[in-house]
Every structure is written in C-alpha cells, then in structure tokens.
Amino acid sequence: MTATELANQVGVCSVVTLWIALVWRAGPALRLPNQRGLWLSVLAATIAITLFQPKVVARCAALGVGAHTVSLTRNLIGVLSAGLVLLFIVDSTRARHQRFSVILGLVTALGSLLALDLLGVTQTAAPASPQGPATASSLYWLILAVSHLAGDAAAVVVCWPYSLRTDDRDLVWSLRMFATGSVLALVFWCGYLYHLYVPDQDLLPYLSMVISVHGFFRAASLLVPTATALARSMAALRTVWRLWPLWRDLVVAVPQVALAAPQRSRLQAVLRPRSSWALQAHRQIIETYDALLELQQYVRPEAYDTAHRRAGRAGMRGDRLAAAALAGALDEARRAKLSGAAPSAPCPLPGVERGSAATLLAIARVWPSRTAPFASVPGPLHPQRP
C-alpha cells in the first residue's frame, strides 16, 4: 500500500468518525452554551476535512463542481473553523473586546480570501491537484495559513494549561484531546506553508494523514462525555452482576429491606433491568447493607473467628481471607434467620460498619459457592438455600 492510498483510507475513517461524533453529540452540545462553540468549531473543521478527501472532490467534479471551487469552499470553511475556535476560547474569558476583535479578524480574513479569488490575482497556469491549494498566491496562502495557525496556537496555549487546573475530568480530557488535535493542525499548516514555497508532492500524503489524525482527536474531544457515561454504565453493570447473588440471598432472607423482589436470574436483571444500571447498582448496595445489618442479630459471637480459621486453612490470604470469613459468618446468620431462629443482641461483623461497596463486592466474590467450607455450623443444621 502506497502512502497516498494509506492517507486516503485514514482520511475516510477520520471523516466518518467525525460525522458520527457530531451527530451523536448534537443534541446535548447545542443545548449547552458552554459546549455549543466547541461543537460548531468541530462541525466547520469536519466539513473542511470532508472536502479535502479525493473521493469527495471527484464526486463534486462528477456533479459539475470544479476542483478550484471545492478548494476555495474548503479554505473559507477552514478559516471559519479557525475563527470559531478562537471565539470558543475567547468566550471562556468573557472578554467582549476580544470577542469583537476575533469577529472582525475573521470577517476580514474571509473577505480577503474571497476578494483575492474573485479578482483573479490568485490564478496560476499550473493545474491544481484535488488536494492541492486553490491558488498558489503567497498572499492568499499566508492569510489562510496565519488564520489557522492563530486559532490552533491559541487552542494549545489556552486549552492544555486550563486542563491542568480544572477538577472536571470530562472537561480535562476534552480540552486535552482538542489541544492535541490543534498541535497536529499546527504541524499540517506549517508543512503546507513549506510545500507552498518548496513544492514537494511526496509530502502531501503525509500531511493528509496528519490532518486526518487531527480529525480523530477532534472527534474524541466531543465524545469524552459519552465515553465517561459509558464507563460509568459499565462499572454499574459490573457491580450489578457481581453483587446480584449476595444481594438476592440476603433480601430473600430479609425481604423488608428490598423495594422489589429479585428477578428470576442474574441474566434477566442485566438484560431486562427495572431501572438504569446505575440506579440498580445503587439500590443493590444499599439493600445488601441494610440486610447485612439486620442479619447481625443472628450472628453468633464466635462465628466470624471460626469462619476466619476455616478460610485460612482453605488457603485464603489477605483481603480475600477477611471477605471469606465475613461471607461464612453472614451465610450462617442468613440460614439461621431462614430456619426461624430467634434474634439476639446484634453481633457486629468487622469491616462493614460504613457499608463500603468495595467490602460488599469482596464478600460477593466468595458468595455463595465458596461460603459453605467456611461456615461455623455443621452442615445438618443448615437448611437448604432457597
């Protein structure tokens, strides 16, 4: 595969990723003023990158739109993208005079590019490649390149340092992805300026790959909130899955702590949840802890120590040993409750005073299949588990 073919494939993947990110984040971004500017700047950049792709240029040519028109349109939208980046950054400082200066500079740059093209002072006899410049005019390209360099340099200077000062992790990674993309854009435009004065066709595929990878980082800056939400959902799903056997057994023994009876199986609880995974995980943690507190009335004083010794003889060590001992003592209390034993003064189990989710999950890892060897009461006294 040649460098040009590779660049074209990377470009197509970049464009598809950008459009998916834009569509996915359109609703939330347009509703929130602090995200709207970022979304619009990425939209403009995406349109410009789309018009940079050879297949798009060829399709436009088939529709009767010349390569020069496509290139001019791409350049104007690219400058608009750089201006929107500057506006996005200036808006965060709430400085009205800076906003006015950026708008004035943007209008001047767009007007100058359009005027130079319409006056025909930028035309050349040499044919332009589909991805090449609309013109070889030094003034035209200096205006275009300086506009992009100003926007991308400002993004790097502002976004990265600010990401080091904020505690909002979504904002941190959005700013870092955006700043990294801006660094790649700076490399691209510096390389294109070099190509203007020292023409080197071999350089174009690599510059194309640079601006395509820049697109991936722009898309990532939009998708950070989605990735965070997905990560939280997956964490909640893991909690629901791992805690379900322990939660089910305890709320069957102490049904008054549960808002609703457990579903038939753990798979059903995951595939057909009664609420979101996050809410289900939160509910299971609270109800498991409430049931655990209730069952402490059925824990014999020596139950934990006995279960601890048996777990140690079974090869358990460290935190796993403590969790297995808790599981054994808790299982004995659950069975006693189900068998109709009378409650007594609560016998608090060590390490569960605050209802830590990590502690409950540690108990769940050895529940129920590994709790039987650690129980402190002989098997015949244990009724069959429901």
Structure description:
This protein has 13 helices and no strands. The chain is mainly α and 386 residues long. Helix 6 (138-163) packs antiparallel against helix 7 (169-197). The radius of gyration is 32 Å and the shape is elongated. The model is unreliable at 122-131 and 369-386 (pLDDT under 50).
Distance between the termini: 63 Å
Strand content: under 5%
Residue share in helix: over 70%
Please tell me the overall pLDDT: 84
Annotation, overall tally of beta strands: 0
- Would you list the SSEs in sequence order as H and E? HHHHHHHHHHHHH
Q: What is the structural class?
A: mainly alpha
Largest sheet: none
Radius of gyration: 32 Å
Number of helices: 13
Task: Write down the overall geometry.
Answer: elongated
Please outline the helices and strands.
Elements: H1 3-31, H2 33-50, H3 54-62, H4 67-93, H5 96-119, H6 138-163, H7 169-197, H8 204-253, H9 266-271, H10 277-295, H11 303-313, H12 318-338, H13 357-365
Helix pairs in contact: 1-2, 1-8, 2-4, 2-8, 4-5, 4-6, 5-6, 6-7, 7-8, 8-10, 8-13, 11-12, 12-13
Brief rundown of the structure:
The chain has 386 residues and is mostly helical. The protein is built from 13 helices and no strands. Helix 6 runs antiparallel to helix 7 and helix 12 (318-338) crosses helix 13 (357-365).
List keywords for this structure.
386 residues; mainly alpha; 13 helices
